[in-house]
Amino acid sequence: MASAADPLIPAETVAGPADPSGEARLDPRFARLRRFAAMPPLQALRELDSSLQGLDEREAQERLARQGDNVLSAMSAHSPLAHLTRAVLDPFVVVLVLLGVVSALTGDIPGIALIGALAAISCALRVRQEYRADRAAAALQGMAATTTTVLRRARPGAAAIAREVPTDQLVPGDVVRLAGGDVVPADLLLLRCDGLAVSQALLTGESLPVSKHAALTASARAVDDAGAGVTLLEHARLCLLGATVVGGSATAVVVATGAGTYFGMSNHDLPDRRGRSTFERGVRGVSVTLIRLMLATVVAVLAVTTFSRDTWLQASLFAVACAVGLVPEMLPVVVTTVLARAQSALRAGGIVVKRLPAVHNLGAMDVLCIDKTGTLTVDRLTVACHLDPLGRSDAEPLRLAHLNASFGLQHADTPVADAIDDALIEHASQSGITADAYTARQVLGFDGTRRRATVVLRPAGQWDRELLITKGAAEHVLACCTHARIDGRDVALDATHRQRLHALADRLHTDGVRALAVAVRTRRATGRPLRPADETALTLIGYVGLLDEAKPSAAAAFSALTGHGVRIKVLTGDHPLVAARICQDAGLDPAVPVCGHEIDALDEPALAALARRTTLFARVDARQKARIVSALRRAGHTVGYVGDGVNDAPALHAADVGASVEGAVDIARHSSEVLLTGKDLAGLTDAVVAGRHAFANIAKYLKITVSSNVGNVCSVLAASATLPFLPMLPLQILLQNLLFDLSQLSLAFDHTDPAARQRPRTFDTRDLSRFVLFFGAINSLADLATFAALHHIAGAHVTPAGQALFHTAWFVENLLTQILAVHLLRGRGGTSGWSWAARPVIVTSAVVILVSLGLAATPLGAAVGLRPPPAVYYLWLAGILSVYAFVLVAAKRLYQRMFRTWL
Ligand SMILES: Nc1ncnc2c1ncn2[C@@H]1O[C@H](COP(=O)(O)OP(=O)(O)OP(=O)(O)O)[C@@H](O)[C@H]1O
Ligand SMILES: [Mg+2]
Q: Does the Cβ of 644 fall within 6 Å of ligand 1?
């Protein structure tokens, strides 16, 4: 029912027509929204052809068919055409097409056919992989979709029932209910509300919650009519898509959905305040390194080849082919495959990863911040004691706390699950406490900054008196108290009293019992809405002690994570003493806890330095949690965050990877990329290990492939400088590159060394360059040995047949040394340096070996200019490969000893 303070139908009458000049100054796209903002509730409902009972199901279905789903934008970036376009614009394909054009000019039909086939294979692989990743993502999105509480009637005239409807099925005219933790699902006009506070951080960047109310006051109307001053975002009666409910509850009617919302029309997506995550930064670093290498290659090859005698066209094509040959073309495919495999493995273990890069970030994370209540603890509070201000057992604080909890819940439109309120109500029902003698007048819900909740009740039979009951965190309630009730008398509090009362609370806190203070005030009944300022001049009645225990899985999970190089930090709104006790129970050493107010004065570097050495932050609110996470990230850490509450949403959003646990409120789930579907924290270690396994395989592919490719370029340079012809034809370079890269795809399925999963890892461009140059040089030495052997076999290779022999010999040797390198370098290796790869890697390697040895004898080989070399060549080849293997293993040992790292 509507209360007197939040009248459903305000006393004021309908506003006159809007001032046309004012309207003209405003953005015409939002005229409709502004009109609704100034409209009395019933008129708005009429206009939307709805009622206080909401829509009936058939009508809702028809509107949905007409209006479309309530989603912001179509997934246009993911259409098959978009995938194809991206695949075709890949540099590898572009060069192939260029080569195709040249072949067409020279009338080389087999060349064109081969180039077409290569381009098609490359595009098809890429499109297929991206498409599959998309489908998986869409399925997960469905799993993670949120629902909204909507009033709907089964038939016209039937009674309305509140039920959960997927948020994308909302239509204009739907009557919805909001509660703390909800994401505002569409553009809404408030019909009634109770202490509603919303955060519009995602919309405006302003993190402080703003309060909203349904009343159509004269001032709101005047502002609307003038069309100046208040923006739609600031408008008190509108809740816009993308905002989140921080406290209170409301009933509202949907005015616009999907693309028709303020957001949809402003034509911008939710801004991402997260900044680049570790994954994005890493990929960027790698790309920049590769691009530099490519540019250097083009210039160097061009310089050398034009000095020697080729035509400009041939020389430039050759240079570009070398540069493209340098690129690990399959990198996007390998990354997606590897991450998607980890994603599906985790899903089988009950961990849903919404975005693929989150898998990498889980593996890279070196700091994990977690929230205490509900995440670290079991979130089943029990009442441990109830004490009067002198510390004697007394039932009165419990009775009043129960009244506060049960009326708070009853009065809300949609009760939010609250562990404290649940515990109080359950305990009261067991001890026979009832709430019969009162009726609720007003409620001021809990929020994480005040850390109190207040209700105003009217005792039965007393029309002019009201009883205000406040419960909340001990210090925060005591601060509002002027008296304490001791043996039925109200005693004024002096400094000594206060000190004793704090000491009493801290005695509970030290035992891990959270002290909830309960205070009251009686006042004459007023019609004024309840405000935080009314929580004053209270009389303390006593404390209720609540006990919450650490999850049994926590200690083991933390020690596993610490063993994997992840440091744990606890960020909680609870009291430092309680939190410290829970930390100890979970096997963490809280050392010196830091409180929220201590960090407000610190700038970011100072906060980061403090956060590095602090394990426990207590009494921190949502904004402070997010600041700590951002400061740690800015200081170079990869930060994960696990939480479940409204006060965790900004931090989840600010972290490199956010995870929410089972039972988390909508906004927490919404802000997370990872959903732990169990209560257990053990899954976190699995997720970290899966992320590292995935990363290890990506790093393997990247380093081995690029080092081989760099080696080739060095050899090409050496050969071009000394030979009177091109050391390998552009098409041959590309074919060899494609064959090798295709076989490397299987590294996505390889196993990894336990040592590679022991520490957090992320892309490190210095490490990449070092590895690539070191092993590239060795690879090139093998090539040079081949050149020398060829020189020995065939003398000068100036005849076309001699050139073809040279090309073939190098083609085969190159592929074989690369495959050998994969198997010798892919694992840390024991004393021999050898470890068996997973079966897919062995199979693809075998295929490439057979193809490279046999290709020259086939028509396809002939088409690309290869011809079978003499038998003696194979003897030389065997010798070179044996020496190469020996040198490679020695180099690997040297590298491991010099840099104390591998892959
Ligand atoms: N429903 C409530 N009514 C009154 N007081 C509450 C209520 N919920 C929490 N409090 C008080 O406010 C304090 C802070 O709560 P807040 O939600 O910020 O953090 P928390 O749930 O204790 O911890 P965490 O941040 O780890 O989830 C609590 O320790 C408690 O004393
Ligand atoms: Mg919490």
A: no
pLDDT, tens digit (0-9, with 9 covering 90-100), for 838-866: 999 999 999 999 999 999 889 888 888 88
Q: Are 359 and 335 in contact (CB under 8 A)?
A: no
Told to judge if 371 belongs to the known catalytic residues of this protein, a careful annotator would answer yes
What DSSP state is assigned to residue 377? B
Among all ligands shown, which has an atom nearest to the Cα of 371? 1
CA distance 676 to 355: 14
Q: How far apart are CA 212 and CA 194, in angstroms?
A: 9
The CATH T-level fold of domain 279-344+691-899 is Calcium-transporting ATPase, transmembrane domain (1.20.1110)
Indicate if ligand 1 lies below 6 Å from the C-beta of 446: yes
Are 351 and 675 spatial neighbours (Cβ–Cβ below 8 Å)?
yes
Sheet bearing 594-595, strands edge to edge: 351-353, 674-676, 657-660, 639-643, 367-370, 567-571, 616-618, 594-595
> Any idea which architecture 382-547 has in CATH?
3-Layer(aba) Sandwich (3.40)
The string of pLDDT tens digits covering residues 414-444 is: 566 678 888 898 888 887 777 777 888 888 8
| pLDDT tier, 678 (very low <50, low <70, confident <90, very high otherwise) | confident
Half-sphere exposure at residue 559, Cβ-oriented, CA atoms within 13 angstroms: 8
Q: Return the CATH number of 1-271, one of 3.90.1150.10, 2.40.50.140, 2.70.150.10, 2.102.10.10.
A: 2.70.150.10
ipTM for the predicted complex comes to: 0.96
Task: Map out the domains of the chain as residue ranges.
Answer: 1-271, 279-344+691-899, 351-378+551-677, 382-547
Please determine, looking at this structure, whether the domain spanning 351-378+551-677 carries the CATH number 3.40.50.970: no
Cα 362 to ligand 1 centre (Å): 28
Residues having C-beta closer than 5 Å to ion ligand 2: 371, 373-374, 645
**Secondary structure element (H or E) that encloses residue 617, with its range:** strand 616-618
Residue 651 has φ and ψ, to the nearest 5°, of -70, -40
Q: Is residue 716 within 8 Å of 387, Cβ to Cβ?
A: no
pTM of the model: 0.79
